[in-house]
Amino acid sequence: MIPAIPAKTAATASTTVQRGEPFKRILLKLSGEALAGQVGYGIDTDVLKVLAAEIKEIHDMGVQVGIVIGGGNIFRGIKGATKGMDRSTADYMGMLATVLNCLALQDALEREQVYTRVLTAIEMRELAEPYIRRKAVRHLEKNRVIIFGAGTGNPYFTTDTTAALRAMEIGSQVVLKATNVDGVYDADPKLDPQAKKFDKLSYLEVLQRGLKVMDSTAISLCMDNRLPIIVFNVNHRGELRRVVLGEAVGTMVSQS
Question: Taking the model in full, what pTM does it have?
Fold first, then answer.
């Protein structure tokens, strides 16, 4: 029996969050590549179904869930810019790619009977609601999963930065960074079998070592506001639930 967590709760200061305590409001950061499965591009509906089931599990526990998805499985703005495209144009194309992923995940969640709203930083009212902070918080209080699309609505900002920004705006206790490895290492564990995994890191250590947790803007934003980040492997079934329940999973990045 999964322990229930009260759904309606005021935002809790992130500095009070400790391992072993369940989270009540989270921001889940998914990469676009996570939706592509083994193919590496596009959207794998089987992967979507598994992700939706994992999110439903924590939602049914009473956890309030906000989600930011990247668009790298469809188009990555910075990659387009390196091939001669105007950076702003490429980034806007990347923002539109995130909306495709948002709609796909919304559909998968609603097939699981989870009420979901997509809110976009660029208005496209026929597809989604425009992002308004108070409205987003109200959706959470009504037990709806919210998915943030189109990044911040500005070029030159990544979806990592979007995740940190939206997490603070909605009063999330933590950013859960879903990856395909089980935490943060000092080297690529796929290339270096001697790579060392960190159970805990400070924001400064991440920045000084140049560890690829999130981009430096996102890390700095979290550091300034003491918003913890937990990096975990989204491909391990049940891992998201374990993280939400406060188990020592993955790597935690915090003030100290």
Answer: 0.89
The CA radius of gyration of the chain, in Å to the nearest whole number, is 17
Nearest to 216 by CA among 168, 173, 253: 253
Cβ-proximal residues to 126 (8 Å cutoff; 6+ apart), any chain: none
Number of domains within the chain: 1
Beta bridge mates, 253? 201, 229
pLDDT at 17: 57
pLDDT in tens, 191-210: 898 999 999 999 999 999 99
Residue 34 included in any domain: yes
pLDDT in tens, 114-155: 999 999 999 999 999 999 999 999 999 999 999 999 999 999
Beta strands at 251-254 and 229-233: parallel, antiparallel or unpaired: antiparallel
CA distances from 245 to 26, 101, 211 (A): 11, 27, 26
Pairwise CA distance, residues 54 & 30, whole Å: 13
Statement: residue 18 has pLDDT above 70: no
Range of the domain at 98: 21-254
**What CA–CA distance (Å, rounded) separates 71 from 159?**
9
Phi, psi values for residue 74, rounded to 5°? -115, -55
Say if 191 falls within a structural domain: yes
Report the first-to-last Cα separation within the chain, whole angstroms: 34
- CB-based contact 15:255 (threshold 8 Å): yes
Residue 12: pLDDT band (50, 70, 90) is very low
Distance between CA atoms of 50 and 108, rounded to whole angstroms? 9
Does residue 2 belong to any structural domain of this protein? no
Is-contact 36 48, C-beta < 8 A?
no
Is 123 contained in some domain? Answer: yes
